[in-house]
Design goal:
Order of helices and strands: HHEHHEEHEHEEHH
Structural class: alpha+beta
Oligomer: single chain
Largest sheet: 4 strands, antiparallel
Distance between the termini: 86 Å
Strand content: 15-25%
Shape: elongated
């Protein structure tokens, strides 16, 4: 009987505890979350999702996927005490894990969280993760990982079962981030289309030299958006152009700009 119950426990644990990230699925935190919420009006929820992580498995295989998730978990594990308050609880969205959830009880001073506090924390988390994704080992992945960070509040509501409210708060944090990103893309897309319409692309030139002999072979034309704008960095400019359906127009403008400046 003891062996039977032990096997049952191990099966349940494997279903609710991700062995790759070493984080529990957030339903395992229900009792702790209920205790925290009893002493507060609400808890913050920060949802962290590497949006294109599925491409890693399809392009590189499950071993690289697992290794990448474990490495991302290491970055997320370091957030409490830095971008998030030290008392934050970390979990994954499910098993096997492809996203993370943080529950934030208080701000760093111990006072009740406001919407502005939580939004600032989510923004700081996004900056931290994006910086990490530009370093090794993530920088070798192609295409680069894109991280989405959303936030919402888990509040008391006696009309709904507690577990259902937790699920709803996590879903809200996830879906609202998608809506925010769509709104942001609409605004940025309009700005990019204006740049294309007004031919605001610059070309800079990089020499092409054979390292062994030092022979000069010409120049490589590199496109840049308007100076001191978000489109000055080509990676951001081209990534956005594909999301808003302007990549063809942008590619044509870059070629025209290079020919014009190269022959002018």
């Amino acid at each position: 009987a003891e062996e039977y119950f032990r096997n049952g426990y191990l099966k349940l644990r494997s279903a609710l505890h991700d062995r790759i990230t070493r984080f529990p699925a957030y339903p395992m935190l229900f009792d702790e979350l209920r205790t925290l919420l009893d002493a507060r009006r609400h808890l913050g929820v920060v949802h962290i999702e590497p949006a294109n992580i599925g491409l890693v498995e399809s392009l590189y295989g499950w071993q690289v996927f697992d290794r990448t998730m474990a490495q991302l978990a290491g970055v997320v594990k370091a957030l409490p005490g830095q971008e998030l308050p030290a008392g934050s609880l970390l979990a994954v969205g499910g098993v096997p894990a492809d996203r993370f959830v943080a529950f934030v009880p208080d701000d760093e001073s111990g006072r009740l969280l406001t919407h502005d506090d939580l939004a600032a924390m989510a923004a700081a988390v996004k900056v931290r993760l994006e910086a990490a994704l530009h370093d090794e080992p993530f920088a070798t992945l192609a295409p680069r990982l894109i991280v989405k960070v959303g936030h919402a509040f888990l509040a008391e509501d006696p009309f709904y079962r507690f577990e259902r409210r937790v699920h709803a708060a996590v879903d809200e944090a996830r879906s609202l981030q998608d809506e925010r990103e769509r709104n942001r893309d609409r605004v940025w897309g309009a700005e990019l289309k204006k740049v294309i319409r007004e031919e605001g692309i610059r070309t800079v030139w990089q020499p092409v030299v054979e390292l062994q002999s030092g022979a000069f072979h010409g120049f490589e034309a590199l496109s840049r958006g308007p100076k001191d704008s978000m489109f000055e960095m080509p990676r951001a400019m081209f990534a956005l152009s594909s999301r808003v359906g302007a990549s063809g127009d942008l590619d044509r403008l870059c070629r025209v700009s290079a020919i014009r400046e190269g022959t002018g």
